[in-house]
Amino acid sequence: MQCFIFDPIAGGFSRHTLRRGDIIPFTEKAPLYLYEFLGSTRNETCWTDRRFLESYCTLKSSFPLPFSAFGGFRRAAPEKPLCTSRRTAGLTLHLGHCLSPKDREDLRRFALKSGLFSRVAPEHEAPTWVQIEGYPLCPCGLFCPFPKLEPDEKSVHVFALQDALSLQGFPPDAGLTGCFCPATARALALFCKSRGRTYRGTVTEEIWRTL
Fold first, then answer.
1. I want to staple 60 with a disulfide (CB 3.0 to 4.6 A). Which of 30, 91, 180, 196 is the partner?
2. How many CB atoms are located within 10 Å of the residue 148 CB?
């Protein structure tokens, strides 16, 4: 499997060929295995952000009880709208399935208090696990957790955009790269035209929700 990790220090993605039992790079101090990140998902390509991985490591190293992760990443699918979850951007993990209810709630509160994550789901949304959601970037609307995107940007959200375009039948000529390149802009313009939308050079909440 090809795992792409956005590194803001380097200003781009590093690409890693991993097996499901391998440790994801940047998590060696508090290992996150690829199968934990993927859960039951079976894909040949995944992506995430170094900052999210490092925040997870900090949480796992600081919490007094051991816990595991199971699932978080998924790619866009016809039956699952893109804008309902940060999972398609690789910025979500589900933790603590094997903890007792009390210990799981302690982990939820610990993660929330840490300030490491953009959101920690409340118990009624994640009754048998702790769902952490990562930075970076601000959402472009109240009901869309994805940011506005401009040409030449590189991020996990561009991967989500390219993947969704491919699913809709408008794959960028350059493939999945995580870079908002001219090929991605052309594919996006064609998609918007097919849906009666106007593309003005920026991916807005309206476009995300249409995807």
1. 30
2. 18
